[in-house]
Structure formats: structure tokens, C-alpha cells
UniProtKB/TrEMBL annotation:
Residues 173-273 form the Fe2OG dioxygenase domain. InterPro entries: DIOX_N, IPNS-like_FE2OG_OXY, IPNS-like_sf, Oxoglu/Fe-dep_dioxygenase_dom, Plant_2OG-oxidoreductases. The keyword Iron applies. It comes from the Eukaryota. The lineage of its organism: Eukaryota, Viridiplantae, Streptophyta, Embryophyta, Tracheophyta. Pfam families: 2OG-FeII_Oxy, DIOX_N. PANTHER family: OXOGLUTARATE/IRON-DEPENDENT DIOXYGENASE. Belongs to the iron/ascorbate-dependent oxidoreductase family. One of its GO terms (molecular function) is L-ascorbic acid binding. It comes from Glycine soja (Wild soybean). Keywords: Iron, Metal-binding, Oxidoreductase, Vitamin C. This is Protein SRG1.
Amino acid sequence: MIHLHRLSSPSTAQQELAKLHHALNSWGCFQAINHGMKSSFLDKMRQVSKQFFQLPKEEKQKCAREREPNNIEGYDNDIIYSENQRLDWTDRVYLKVLPEDQRKFKFWPQNPNDFSYTFLSPPTLNECSFLHEEYCPTVYRKYKAETEVIIKAMTNSLNLEEDCFLNECGERDVMFLRFNYYPPCPMPDHVLGLKPHADGSTITFLLQDKLVQGLQGLKYDQWFKVPIILDALVINVGDQTEILSNGIFRSPIHRAVINSEKERLTVAIFCLADSEKEIKPVKNYSEIYFQYYHQGKRPIEASKI
């Protein structure tokens, strides 16, 4: 566990930086606590997500993904790349949050009616009747700020200039939200909620289900359960950070398993480098990511020289 507040405190920073370095070098992930986000804020994220997935299918289809190559935004499940592809046992909603001028609001759920406000817009005076002020600034602003804190801490732990990773990532932040709904399955040993993969991000935040475990990480050729810690965020580095750090920080392989009796819901936030920037030695990394993911392969393998 990493206390994010301690990363910026002069009296505790060095000790916490050492813990961060060890966590990302050995596991590629950690549980973040003392991150400054209230329980009620995290519960609001879970609440509106769950309300959407409980809607009738016809209502959810109003923001369905368009069946075009490389289009991931909207409500759907797996993109089909081949007849032999193993499908994930999950429904999901992908939404692009940043850059702001690239948001496609036709894919944003209109029901529940406070969905978009919760994740995007600071409430006006008229909206405060149903959206409490503690949800401001909005989700993406909170996580953008946390991302900068963590990336600066990573570079400090490597004895590099504090802003060097941020500069490499560019000025136009890219951020995706993904809402994952895993329904119960009577034969959970025959399916996976998410197939084994590593993220193509710089950093990924995961808000776990409060009650139902499902996330597992691969280490020593074994799958380890990631425990649920109250109000903690699971944070892992993605392939882009593994490339930036020259392999010192490892992008962890992980998966999601299914429960036979209980549904599970999680919210993931993916932070990526500016799409116009080159994360050497790879170009257009985001374009190849999903092609490799659905083949059960690591896209980072394509970047090795």
C-alpha cells in the first residue's frame, strides 16, 4: 500500500518513494490510500455506473458502440477480430474524456440523468440540488491531478528530473473511462471476465467492487487475488510507462474472474500519452493495442527491438 499524501510530504517522501519504486519494479501496481477522495465520491461513481447497467437492454443500446474498425467508444462487449476469439464475460462502456474536443457525447449515457455530470461537468447552482458540491472538481480533474503526482514520484524514485516523463507524454492528455459489469455465471471456471492482458496506458486507476473480488495479477507464473481494501484505488503502470522507464517499472499482466452467484462492477480510468507523441521505440501504439489484446498477446512485444 502506498500513502499518496506521504509522497508529497518532506518528512515521509523518501520512505514512500522507496516503497513506490519497489512496488512498480516488482509487481507493477499498488493499492493507493490517503488519496484525498472521499468514500461518498467513490460511491457516487459506483452508484451511477450500476444504475446504467441495471437499465433495460433497449435503453443501454441508445449509446451502443458503432461497429467500425478501431472504434471502442460506447456500450458493448468485445470487438470481434476473429472467429476463434475467446470473448470476455462482461458488458462495458468506454468513453473518451480527454482531450475535451474529442469527446463523443452520443456515447455518453443520458440515463441516469446525472451520469455525465458526475464524471465531467462541475455543477452549476441549478444542478447542485442533485449533485453535491463534494463531487467537484469532477472525476477527470481529480484523477488528472493524481496522475501528475504519481508520475512525478516515479521519476523522483528513479533520480530523474521530476517532469521528464510528463514532458515525454505531451501536453494533450488522453484519458478514457471504462465501466465494467460482470454478471454472474453458473460455470465461472469456463469463462473470464477479462482475459489476461497488460494495459496500454501510462497509468491505470481501478475502483474495485466494494464486496466481490475478481481482479487477479500474474506473478511467478501464478495468479494472485488482489484484495479489496476499503476506499483504496488499485493503480498500475501500463506499457507506455514500461517503455518510458526502460523496463524498470513493469506493466503487470492481470485478468478478471467471474463469480457464480454475484455480479461485480468496477470503474477503470486509463491515462495515456498525447496521441501525437512518439513513445519510443513504438509509433501509433494505441492503434495496435486492441488487435493484440484480443489475440491474447501482449502488444508491448511488438515494440521490442
